Amino acid sequence: MRKSKLSKASWVLPLFLVASCSASQRDEVEIIFKCHADQPKSIDVVISKMDNTFKLEQFNIENSKLANAALISDVSKSSYHRSLVTEHSMTFTRGNSEVIVSDYYSEELDMITKETSVTVQKIDKKEYWLCDDSGFSKLGSIEDF
Question: What is the Cα–Cα distance from 87 to 139, expressed in whole angstroms?
Answer without folding.
Answer: 9
